[in-house]
Amino acid sequence: MSEITSRNRIHRHKDRGHYDDPTIYEILDQGKICHVGFTVEAQPFVIPMAYARHGNALYLHGAPNSRLLKQLGSGIPVCVTVTHLDGLVLARSTFHHSLNFRSVVAFGTARHVEDLAEKHQALITITEHLAPGRTRVARAATDEEAKATSVVRFEIEEASAKARSGPPIDSPKDMQLDVWAGVIPIAVEEHEPQPAPDLKPGISYA
Amino acid sequence: MSEITSRNRIHRHKDRGHYDDPTIYEILDQGKICHVGFTVEAQPFVIPMAYARHGNALYLHGAPNSRLLKQLGSGIPVCVTVTHLDGLVLARSTFHHSLNFRSVVAFGTARHVEDLAEKHQALITITEHLAPGRTRVARAATDEEAKATSVVRFEIEEASAKARSGPPIDSPKDMQLDVWAGVIPIAVEEHEPQPAPDLKPGISYA
């Protein structure tokens, strides 16, 4: 359970806010890309990154001389947000149009992972999160490759989830308008695997 | 063309960076949710918000007493990021796994829209962007409703786009491994409209 503080408290639509770990972890686990926010000399940056959750932490990775990763791992305050768009909410009035969504905003700090064993484990965790099962078939990272990757571990100090679902909520006076109302569901979908043009013959996608 | 400065310059994978307006605008126009970053007392916040582009600006909106909107419109530095995930890139080696994506990171400042006519126009722009055609059928916002909404206009000062597409790029030594390699395309898709349970009978989705 995330403690509720001035940093993560939901102010608008309090009924849409959640602070329990299972809700927060489920939303985090269903995303592939997070948006990482940090501040350098008063300038905020928001960078999309692959990630994976491990317990109450998120692993992020990148190139070792990445400006971003250097900043991130230096212990500055970081905010990581994951959002899923679930639907367009079409109301009878323009005013009550909305979006169905689930999101998590997490606050914490990140540190560089230096230990080679933890780094290997983090890279496996990220790859398995992005493409489940792949670390069983793909060649594992060598120590050289792990050393050539920067990994940071973002420890979640506080977080909140926010979600809207369900049909539009129009004003009573608008209910008799001859306007279609409802939801257009939106989903992120995986399509037919496309083999690499240089794939060795005879290997099929498992 | 966005000027290239220390703020928006792409450092990693320079070949994946773009600074031209058409590329940046196209990526912005294809998203429904952006991630808005700003800093309050050294703490970064990253908040998902609906948006729409109008020329070189993005309109964002929310409740008038929203803490977020108040901060955003006060002229502080803001970073807005839009990301599309296009595919999982499965390489023969764990190390070369990647994601296909398109993203824009935009820097600028936001100001509150006070003019009622511009506010109405902004709300129409946002609604049309989220659900094209809806402002022709849904009841238009009244002046009261527009006054009950906070709108901020984020002027893009600098931006950069970054994109990866295409198959995995493995090391030559891994090309003979018996491992499937390729891309799993990912797309955001709209599904069959779901009428509101209280929809007036006889109205079909146009």
Give a quick set of tags describing it:
six-stranded antiparallel barrel; 5 helices; 206 residues; Pnp Oxidase, Chain A; 19% helix; alpha+beta; homodimer
Topology:
2 copies of one chain form a homodimer.
Chain A: E1 17-18, H1 21-29, E2 33-40, E3 43-54, E4 57-62, H2 67-72, E5 74-90, E6 98-112, H3 116-130, H4 134-137, H5 143-147, E7 150-164, E8 182-190, E9 194-195
Antiparallel strand pairs in A: 1-7, 2-3, 2-5, 3-4, 4-7, 5-6, 5-8, 6-7
Q: Please give the alpha-carbon distance between the first and last residues of chain A.
A: 38 Å
Q: How would a textbook summarize the main sheet of chain A?
A: 6 strands, antiparallel, barrel
Oligomer state of the chains in this structure:
homodimer
The assigned CATH architecture of chain A is Roll
Helix/strand class of chain A: alpha+beta
CATH homologous superfamily placement of chain A: Electron Transport, Fmn-binding Protein, Chain A
Bin the helical content of chain A.
10-25%
Largest interface: A-B, 91 and 91 residues
| Overall domain count of chain A | 1
List low-confidence stretches of chain A: none
- Return the CATH class of chain A: Mainly Beta
Enter the CATH topology name of chain A: Pnp Oxidase, Chain A
The sequence of SSEs of chain A as H and E is: EHEEEHEEHHHEEE
Q: Within the largest sheet of chain A, what's the order of strands?
A: 2-3-4-7-6-5
Report Rg of chain A.
Answer: 21 Å
Number of strands of chain A: 9
Overall, the morphology of chain A is globular
